[in-house]
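Tokens in:
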């Protein structure tokens, strides 16, 4: 990715939901239109779904999304109006991970806190299709009457990886587990988390949704790190260990969910990656810093199927690689992001002022 610019494009919007959507649609019109036109093509590299079936799921899920948050749907409507695409097109982007539980991303994430001496961090590698890079931006939203937030996200999504002004940072992992075709899209519940100010509020934002897919959300909050293993029926909460560490890859960890792992194929070496990140954190022997986190994300044990992931010969996901690497530091309201594999791309700082 040597020809790719170092920084992601940056966009800022503010105001009512419809106003923010219109501003975003205008600022990223070309990217949104191209992403809409290519999204289904890229999905079909790992699964097979017809256009008619994909759009039916999008329409069905729009009903659930509107029940969850009229404001979020209004934002998408504003975006559709100014970008010149349909609302169904934008909903298709929200529901791509509902076509199969393994179509989203394989990621390694971790959080750590050491109290007031070393504020909490949450970090991850986002391993996915490198063709998504051109549609990725750093987006700051300043909604009227709700917390400001900053996300690194593909254009058109209602929320993604990032943090809000109340100190809630979120990283994401695919979690293979039972699913259903239609429901509140995962990114809507994530936006609900960014509209929260406490861990309890964040958990409620997920629990109140009639969800379609399982997911894992690793959080840093004012109440400390927490990992949410989300199924379509419940939200299971994991907390940090005695050293203040919490890690996750792409399989269930909670005692009540581990049996599910036997029902699904392991997603891109999830077990070895979790073992490796646990070992690396245990060996650190000091409070985790931003620089430490960046080095952990660049780890090549098991290369090319490593934490820092590179193309390999896997028949289904071999073209996936670490598309971006992020370290979120909520106390300083910053995200440190490497655009591409962190072993060879610098981390750039983005701030929620």
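Residues out:
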């Amino acid at each position: 990715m040597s020809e790719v610019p170092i920084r992601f494009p940056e966009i800022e919007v503010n105001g009512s939901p419809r106003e923010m959507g219109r501003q975003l649609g205008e600022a990223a019109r070309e990217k949104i239109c191209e992403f809409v036109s290519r999204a289904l093509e890229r999905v079909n590299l790992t699964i097979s779904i017809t256009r008619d079936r994909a759009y039916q799921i999008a329409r069905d899920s729009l009903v659930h999304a509107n029940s969850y948050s009229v404001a979020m749907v209004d934002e998408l409507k504003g975006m559709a109006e100014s970008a010149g695409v349909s609302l169904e097109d934008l909903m298709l982007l929200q529901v791509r991970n509902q076509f199969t539980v393994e179509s989203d991303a394989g990621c390694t994430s971790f959080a750590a806190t050491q109290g007031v001496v070393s504020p909490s961090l949450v970090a991850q590698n986002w391993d996915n299709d490198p063709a998504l890079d051109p549609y990725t931006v750093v987006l700051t939203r300043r909604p009227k009457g709700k917390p400001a937030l900053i996300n690194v996200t593909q254009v058109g999504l209602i929320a993604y990886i990032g943090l809000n002004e109340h100190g809630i940072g979120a990283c994401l992992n695919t979690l293979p587990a039972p699913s259903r075709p239609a429901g509140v899209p995962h990114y809507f519940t994530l936006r609900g988390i960014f509209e929260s100010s406490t861990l309890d509020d964040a958990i409620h934002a997920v629990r109140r949704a009639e969800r379609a897919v399982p997911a894992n959300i690793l959080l840093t909050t004012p109440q400390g790190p927490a990992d949410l293993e989300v199924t379509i029926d419940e939200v299971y909460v994991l907390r940090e260990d005695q050293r203040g560490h919490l890690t996750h890859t792409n399989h269930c960890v909670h005692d009540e969910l581990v049996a599910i792992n036997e029902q699904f194929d392991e997603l891109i070496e999830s077990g070895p990656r979790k073992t490796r990140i646990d070992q690396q954190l245990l060996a650190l022997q000091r409070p985790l810093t931003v620089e430490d986190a960046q080095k952990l994300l660049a780890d090549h044990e098991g290369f090319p199927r490593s934490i820092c992931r590179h193309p390999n010969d896997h028949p289904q996901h071999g073209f996936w690689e670490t598309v971006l690497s992020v370290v979120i530091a909520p106390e300083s309201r910053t995200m440190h992001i490497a655009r591409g594999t962190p072993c060879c791309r610098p981390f750039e700082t983005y701030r929620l002022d």
